[in-house]
Amino acid sequence: PTPEPLTLIRPSGVVTRHSSDIIAIDDAKVSAACRYIRQHATAGLTVPQVADHVTLSRRALERRFHNALKRSPQSELRRVQLERVRRLLEDTDHKLSVIAKMSGFRYHEYMSKVFKEKMGMSPGIYRKSKRRDIQVSKDADPDQEAQGEYPQHAS
After folding, report:
1. Helix axes 58-69, 73-91, angle to 10 degrees
2. Which of 138, 119, 124 minimizes the C-alpha distance to 11?
3. CB 3.0-4.6 Å disulfide test: which of 15, 103, 119, 127 passes with 84?
4. CA 37 to chain centre
5. Please, what are the averages of pLDDT over each run of 10 residues along the chain (155 residues)?
6. pLDDT recorded at residue 155
7. Distances in whole angstroms, Cα of residue 67 to Cα of each of 14, 64, 82, 103, 105
8. From CA 136, how far away is CA 133, in angstroms rounded?
9. What pLDDT sits at residue 44?
């Protein structure tokens, strides 16, 4: 029997699992704080809540965070929240107000401001650019893809 031809499907991206999104942190309290942030950032978590969870004062947590990671607990919290925003913009058609709530932001206007500051474009433009990349990928020549030659997209 003749085998059926293979259909190649181009991946749309890589999703980082919590179990693989770990960096080596020597400070056990900072490590615990990072885990807690990853698990609860999208539920409206605050830095004082993180400090309480790891039984440190806010100032002690900030000092230890800077020593271990060269960034603040607040910047780690925002990084996790913005990663969630980015994924939701790429993968859903949810309104910004819904994405804000799902990502731990109280107000979608503030989420949009922070997103633009960090990503260099508004959430709407980001979403459109990712949708255009996906459309271009769907239109790519399957013969080129079969040979491992993918069209380059402007970033």
Report:
1. 70
2. 138
3. 103
4. 13
5. 72 52 78 94 94 97 95 95 95 95 95 95 92 56 42 41
6. 40
7. 30, 5, 23, 27, 27
8. 5
9. 87
**26-35, Cβ contacts within 8 angstroms, sequence gap of 24 or more:** 26/68, 27/64, 27/67, 27/68, 29/54, 29/55, 29/56, 29/61, 29/64, 30/61, 30/64, 30/65, 30/68, 30/69, 33/61, 33/65, 33/73, 34/69, 34/76
pTM of the model: 0.71
Alpha carbon distance 103, 89 (integer Å) = 11
The answer to whether the CB of 76 falls within 8 A of the CB of 34 is yes
85 contacts 115 by C-beta, under 8 angstroms: yes
Provide the residue type at 63 as one letter: R
Q: How far is CA 26 from CA 36, 69, 119, in A?
A: 16, 10, 30
- Residue 105: count of CB within 10 angstroms of its CB: 25
Q: What is the pLDDT of residue 91?
A: 92
For residue 90 the two structure tokens come to 């790429």
Residue 127 near residue 134 (C-beta atoms within 8 A): no
Task: Report, in angstroms and rounded to the nearest whole number, the Rg of the chain calculated over CA atoms.
Answer: 20
